[in-house]
Amino acid sequence: MKNLKYLLVGVLFGITLSKAEVISWFRIYEMFKLQSFHMFGVIGTAVVLGFFIIRGFNRKVLKSATGAMVRVEEKKKGTPRNLIGGIIFGLGWALGGACPGPIFILVGKGVVSILVVLFGALLGALLYHILKFKLPHYVFRSPNKKT
Amino acid sequence: MDFILQPWPWYVAGVLIAFCMYLMFYFGKHFGVSSNLETMCAMSGAGKFIDFFKFDWKKNIWNLAFVLGLVIGGFIANQWLMPDQTIALNPKTVEDLAQIGIQNAGSGFLPEEIFGMEALFSVKGFLILLTAGLLVGFGSRYASGCTSGHGIVGLSSLARESFIAVAGFFIGGLIMTWLILPFLF
Q: Which residues of chain A neighbour B117 with C-beta distances below 8 Å?
């Protein structure tokens, strides 16, 4: 039951991305064609507010439920991993019109074919961990053996 | 009530997305969807073949609960909150899509040419869906984050890595949309 609150945040997030049409393939296409402000507005608003929220947590103006300090996890370092990984992700995002959140939301919407995309995404995550030792992460040449 | 049933403008969505992120931090967790892909692989027994997946997936149940919420949210919105599922796209977008072989853009949330049953049961259509998923899953784990983790949280915390990753998202997205999609349909 202690997990119910996370489920409810998910419900709110799912309804929000549905109602704002972020889960629509067409909206993603329109964004990458730079023909609408909609998606940029959605992400931009969230990031600007998010900036103040994270600053609030860092400066202890905002506190967590337990009063414990909130630390935003640091992202994994390495330009190649973030750039190449990002490009691969972007190719898939524009092809399927859905990033991971919307994939699950579209499952709830009852879109049968999104299950293939979800299966592909799970397979992709699996494949990454099989191949990661051969991929560059921290420097562009000689793949780093440590992950 | 009327407002709830209309499509929500970008600023409403932006505020609510930031609020969701706030709630996850408030509860002492983080905000990110794509790490769940790994948890689900581990849950399905991928640890038998790949050491990485031997981690205790039960520690991430809170995030799986969030994902279950996404599914439920998608269901609720579709059932009761979206009487009109047409999308007011830029007319130029509709025209561009017709030219590359995607008709009736905006008459629903998704193009029939990609998500319809006919596409699903054709070899080409199936491969397009599978490839989209593969790229999303592989890329998000390679970059260790997707639109939520890098796009929202990472950019909000001004993380250098996330600016690089999001630049990558757009490079990939622009290549797909401008150079590859026109030749697929």
A: 112-113
Residues A96-136: pLDDT tens digits?
A: 999 999 999 999 999 999 999 999 999 999 999 999 999 99
Report domain extents, chain B. 1-83
Whether residues A120 and B137 touch (CB distance < 8 A) is answered with yes
On whether ipTM exceeds 0.85, the answer is yes
pLDDT in tens, B136-163: 999 999 999 999 999 999 999 999 999 9
CA–CA dist A31, A94 (Å, integer):
9
* Contact between A100 and B34 (Cβ < 8 Å): yes
Q: In chain A, which residue's Cα lies nearest the Cα of B178?
A: A33
Q: Determine, for residues B13 and A105 on separate chains, whether the beta-carbon distance falls below 8 Å.
A: no
Tokens of A46: 């969230």
Chain A residues inside the 8 Å CB shell of B23: 5, 9
pTM of the model: 0.96
CB-based contact A26 B106, cutoff 8 Å: yes
Of B53, B143, B107, B157, which is closest to residue A53 (Cα–Cα)? B157
Gap between the Cα atoms of A134 and A119, Å rounded: 24
